Amino acid sequence: MRRIAIAVVASTMSLSLAGCGMLGASEDGASATPTRSDDITVGVLMPEETNTRYAEFDYPIIKRKVSELTDGKGKTEYANAAASTEKQNTQMQRMIDDKVDIILLDAVDAKVIAPMVQKAKDANIPVIAYDRLAQGPIEGYVSFDNELVGEVQGRTLAEAIGTVSLADKIIMMNGSPTDPNAAQFKQGALSELSGRVTIAESYDTDKWSPEAAQANMTKAIEAVGKKNIAGVYSANDAMAGGIIKALESAGVSANDLPPITGQDAELAAVQRIIAGEQYMSVYKPYPAMAEAAAQAAVAKVQGRDLQFDALTRDKVDSPTTKGIPAKLVTVVALKKNNIKQTVVADGIYKISDICTAKYKADCQALNIS
């Protein structure tokens, strides 16, 4: 059974348990323990600012859900590390000193943060890894099925190329080597591409930098030739933007760009998809993940074991901790034909956000209005 199938069951169970009014209990009615008050503080640590989703979607949703679950009494304490491990260590130490009740951690570097996770545990502050699986004594993990993300990217790229063969040369622009998710994205993509196409050049991109992706793509163009590139695997949207700049600088017109993947459904990427510059992105329903993280955090602090277990039916392993309770949310390939059914329907963007004057004609052609 795929991991994601288990996660879907967990979500369904959580809803049905909520409907039965059982989420305030622990293992069973006889051994139920009193829940803590709603006056709690959830620390939220995000990794970087290049990707706009953390400030625009993840944190606001977490903040709202924590408040909702605690009758307006629960608070959140937020910090973004701007891709600095030192800064994130300092931010986490501050939260430990402030004696927050629990920390939702999206690590800049999964390995480097491990001693801080241990410090939090020593201070009786549980840490739930969010989005990226940090090392150390993590109490839970809420993310997307990251290998599935790569599979969706690789499969969609192959479909865009058409009848693929080893004559087709692909450039792979992978994510940061310090992000464990990047390795899973790459593994998933290779499971769809290996043996079907030729991976002509492959790069790991420090800190997911669009500038680094642009520089690496320039090298790839010089090595392979702009006319010989059948497609580009870009692990996320920000890097896709840099890749497109490199291709355009090499003289490739917008109409002749090879299919390029992405991830995160950033607004600029959605607009590039509409304009035909980027082939696809992976839409990860942030409301589902962020709300699940908030629910898990509140349940963990308040001792609602049944709710926490229902939300985290899956198990994952890190290099330091085995059997971490996890919630894995499914993903969707975002292309021209499902923009209204995904990011618009979920309230991520309004049509007016997407269809600005520059993209009005493209939106009309796709009946997005």
Question: What report would you give on this structure?
Answer:
This protein is an alpha/beta fold and 369 residues long. 44% of the residues lie in helices and 16% in strands. Helix 5 packs parallel to helix 6 (180-193), helix 7 packs across helix 8 (237-249) and helix 10 packs antiparallel against helix 11 (305-311). The longest helix is centred in the first third of the chain and has 17 residues, at 3-19. The relative contact order is 0.15.
Query: What is the helical fraction, as a range of percent?
Result: 40-55%
What is the terminal separation in angstroms?
A: 40 Å
Q: Which H/E pattern describes the elements?
A: HEHEHEHEEHEHEHEHHEHHEEEHHH
Helix and strand content put the structural class at alpha/beta
Low-confidence runs of at least 5 consecutive residues: 1-34
Strand order, biggest sheet?
2-1-3-4-5-11-10
For the sheet with most strands, the description reads: 7 strands, mixed
Envelope shape: globular
Name the average pLDDT.
90
Total helical segments = 14
Radius of gyration: 21 Å
Approximate strand percentage = 15-25%
Number of strands: 12
Features:
369 residues; alpha/beta; seven-stranded mixed sheet; globular
How do the strands and helices of this protein lay out in sequence?
Elements lengths: L2 H17 L21 E6 L6 H17 L5 E6 L4 H13 L4 E4 L8 H9 L4 E4 L9 E5 L1 H16 L7 E6 L5 H14 L4 E7 L5 H15 L4 E6 L2 H13 L17 H9 L5 E3 L2 H17 L2 H7 L2 E3 L7 E6 L2 E3 L5 H5 L6 H4 L5 H6 L4
Helix pairs in contact: 1-11, 2-10, 5-6, 7-8, 10-11
Structure summarized in a few sentences:
The chain is built from 14 helices and twelve strands. It has 369 residues and is α/β, with parallel strands linked by helices. The longest helix is centred in the first third of the chain and has 17 residues, at 3-19.
